[in-house]
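From the methods appendix. Each design record in this collection lists the tokenized structure first, followed by the designed amino acid sequence. Records were kept in a plain field format so they could be parsed without special tools. The example shown here is representative of the layout used throughout.

RECORD:
FOLD TOKENS (137 positions):
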């Protein structure tokens, strides 16, 4: 298990050895985000009560997408386009941005992680952008 410098953000191994990030706020609430798909699989309130549903039958094994929780749907939702269901970003491995740009508001009471997706050459044919970036709060 490896931990980042900030103890409120921990990078560790999850199911089937997939990398995940655990976010801990000072009030005791937590979130768990798998880097595979940038998928939020757990969100617990300050009482430790789970607020998301992830099926016990969910498969945490690429190339299958994780089912349940909060999936990332990009650049399309469902099969409402020419790409695979919910777009390509859901089945790619994201990385943690270790040098994010300054956040526009006071973050002293918040924990967040910035994720980056570096698309493959095939992805760039579909979505011609160099990087996709988003934050999880």
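DESIGN:
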């Amino acid at each position: 298990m490896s931990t980042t410098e900030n103890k409120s953000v921990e990078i560790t191994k999850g199911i089937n050895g997939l990398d995940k990030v655990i976010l801990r706020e000072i009030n005791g609430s937590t979130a768990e985000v798998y880097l595979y798909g940038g998928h939020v699989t757990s969100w617990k309130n300050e009482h430790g009560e789970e607020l998301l549903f992830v099926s016990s039958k969910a498969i945490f094994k690429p190339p299958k997408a994780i089912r349940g929780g909060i999936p990332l749907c990009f650049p399309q939702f469902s099969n409402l386009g020419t790409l695979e269901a919910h777009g390509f970003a859901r089945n790619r491995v994201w990385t943690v941005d270790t040098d994010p740009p300054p956040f526009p508001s006071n973050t002293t009471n918040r924990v967040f992680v910035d994720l980056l997706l570096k698309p493959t050459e095939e992805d760039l044919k579909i979505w011609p952008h160099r990087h996709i970036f988003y934050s999880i709060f």
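APPENDIX NOTE: The two ends are 22 Å apart (CA to CA).
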